[in-house]
Amino acid sequence: MNSEEELVIRVTAMPTDLNPYGGVFGGWLMSQMALGASSLATRRCGCKAILVGATDFSFPAAMGVGDELSVHAGIERVGRTSMTIAARGIGRERSSDACCEVARGRFTFVALDENDRPCAIQPDKISVE
After folding, report:
1. Chain centre distance of CA 27
2. Which has the least CB within 10 A, 8, 58, 72, 107?
3. What is the reported pTM?
């Protein structure tokens, strides 16, 4: 993750977000991270940005119902029409300030014009360190 990482979404895990074993479902974590990464991609490219790939997922710790998920994201790579965003989820236990990383992954987005065709990303809108 680069130094330009920012908080992109914060949400509380609810009972409907649990897997059959009582922990937060990994798919829910991935979707929250994708939503946050999408927000960053769209803001940075200034147009519609669609998700075309997701890789390198890991879930180093578990979350429980009521825990808060904060998703932090940063741009890792910018191409002509695409960008890759690294995201990580930080879980905070509901009844304390204890936090730990619960998920991480990478998302690739393609910028689209008004006709839903890939378009060039304006380099002056993006900063990658």
Report:
1. 12
2. 58
3. 0.89
Question: In this structure, what token pair is assigned to residue 33?
Answer: 């991270």
- List the domains of the chain with CATH numbers: 6-125 (3.10.129.10)
Tens-digit pLDDT profile for residues 52-68: 999 999 999 999 999 99
Q: What angle do CA 47, 53, 57 make, to 5 degrees?
A: 125
SS3 percent helix, strand, coil of the chain, rounded to 5, is: 20, 45, 35
Structure tokens at 25: 């479902």
Phi, psi of 102 (to 5 degrees): -110, -15
| Ranges assigned E (strand) in the chain | 6-12, 48-58, 68-78, 82-92, 99-112
